[in-house]
Design brief:
268 residues; 8-stranded mixed beta sheet; 8 strands; 37% helix
Length: 268
């Protein structure tokens, strides 16, 4: 009996460990800027012969940092193929609000915002792991606005999710191009979103008869999903941001329900 137990123990020890979650840096280029995103997936669930819905992840105005990478990994654990894109350039990340504002400002109100996001979406498709008929995008703060711009451009995404994002009204001329369903997850006490901005945003979607949901979380301010938001606020003096656990948890669950509607699993 002892020999059998020892043999079984040795067999377990020599068996190769197999990591389920794969993380692959992906270098690409857009308008002459060298970018590097991160492709994340579960290789026990996803392969070229068994493709899964693909989710594009768009970072906050800080750049492609640990938070955005972590969201991509969380999506991979749910069975999706996630690509955390890079909007700024390889290695361009900051914790300085002034610098972050400068980096983000080059995109607002310009076609570059949607075009750079589309470059990331193309990389997700080129992975060969994502079902091209089942694509979506999520974004945080600046990334939420970027997802809106991507949807308005007519990109082939079934839906987008904006977490505490800036709000971009849908221009009437862009309304015919909108194919995506929209989920906006908003902090009710977000000081960066004025009442008139919120009203202009929802009015534009109503006038376009867009398929959208707007969920407002009481007690939540800007950046409510980021566990590091309080530390960032203390270190930088940036007011109006903070982590809110109930809103973070509920908004992620709302996203999951949204994706279940977009990408229902076949009935057995």
């Amino acid at each position: 009996m002892k020999i059998l137990v020892l043999a079984a123990t040795l067999a377990v020890c020599v068996m190769p460990l197999h990591a389920k979650i794969v993380k692959k840096p992906v270098a690409y280029e857009h308008t002459g800027v060298t970018l590097e995103g991160l492709l994340v997936y579960d290789d026990e669930k996803v392969s070229p012969s068994s493709r899964a819905p693909g989710i594009l992840v768009v970072h906050e105005w800080w750049g492609l940092n640990a938070f955005a990478r972590g969201r991509a990994e969380a999506l991979a654990k749910l069975g999706y193929v996630a690509f955390a894109l890079d909007m700024y350039g390889k290695g361009v990340v900051t914790d300085d609000p002034k610098r972050a504002g400068e980096l983000a400002s080059q995109f607002y109100g310009k076609p570059l915002m949607a075009d750079r996001a589309r470059a990331g979406l193309d990389q997700l498709v080129k992975s060969g792991l994502a079902d091209e008929s089942k694509l979506a995008a999520i974004g945080f703060c600046f990334g939420g606005a970027t997802c809106q711009a991507l949807a308005y451009s007519g990109a082939p995404v079934s839906g987008i999710v904006s977490f505490h994002g800036s709000l971009i009204p849908l221009a009437p001329a862009a309304a015919p191009s909108l194919k995506a369903k929209i989920l906006v997850l908003h902090g009710a006490l977000d000081p960066f979103i004025k009442t008139e901005e919120l009203q202009a945003f929802t009015r534009s979607l109503d006038e376009a008869k867009a398929d959208y949901q707007f969920v407002s979380y009481s007690g939540a301010v800007h950046a409510f999903t980021n566990p590091q938001a309080d530390k960032i606020a203390a270190a930088t003096g940036l007011k109006g941001i903070g982590y809110h656990e109930p809103a973070a948890r509920r908004s992620w669950a709302q996203m999951r329900a949204f994706f279940s509607e977009l990408f229902p699993k076949p009935k057995s």
